[in-house]
Specification:
The chain has 164 residues and is mainly alpha-helical. The chain folds into two domains: 21-50 and 123-162, no CATH class; 56-116, Arc Repressor Mutant, subunit A (Orthogonal Bundle), CATH 1.10.10. Helix content is 66%, strand content 7%. The chain contains seven helices and three strands, in the order H-H-H-E-H-H-E-E-H-H. It has a three-stranded antiparallel sheet. Strand 2 and strand 3 form a beta hairpin.
């Protein structure tokens, strides 16, 4: 990890104390190490389940619709942090691939509600199973039972961080 002065980091991080301490330095190093490892793990998981020739943005929309349920294009654009025009292009590509379909919004007929097709649900489930299978094999091969218990405990901590 490249070392940056704590004062530089603290300008963009509210939680860092003005006067660096050994504990602050250790926590900053841990945060950097965790970011790197989580990035590596995310890349490995993405490699395990390819969803055809879809872009990362298209995959992200499929996963969001699977997790959150049907949504309007504008709500998807806000949730994904893209412009409505970009989301329109993403949805159009997913529609032509047979992964999403639109229906009139029951509350406001001028809007379209986008939902997953059965083909998309199968793709998402297949990808999820492939990633979980890879994780199972990696955990079984690389970690002792004691290390697996430590990892189980770490998942609880990571869950708390994800909710912060």
């Amino acid at each position: 990890m490249s070392e940056r002065p704590i004062s530089e980091i603290s300008e963009s991080t509210e939680a860092v104390e003005a006067t660096p301490t050994a504990e602050t330095s250790e926590t900053l190093a841990l945060a950097g190490d965790l970011r790197v490892v989580l990035g590596q793990l995310s890349r490995r998981l993405r490699e395990q389940a390819t969803v055809g020739d879809l872009t990362q943005s298209q995959k992200s929309v499929l996963v969001r619709l699977d997790r959150d349920g049907p949504s309007t294009k504008s709500a998807l654009a806000r949730a994904e942090g893209v412009t409505p025009q970009s989301m329109g292009a993403i949805i159009a590509a997913l529609e032509s691939a047979g992964f999403v379909e639109g229906s009139p919004d029951p509350v406001d007929g001028r809007k379209t509600v986008v939902s997953l097709t059965d083909a998309a649900l199968d793709k998402v489930a297949t990808g999820r199973l492939a990633r979980e299978g890879w994780l199972f094999r990696a955990i079984s091969a690389e970690l002792s039972p004691t290390e697996q218990k430590t990892l189980r405990d770490a998942v609880e901590l990571l869950t708390r961080l994800a909710r912060f």
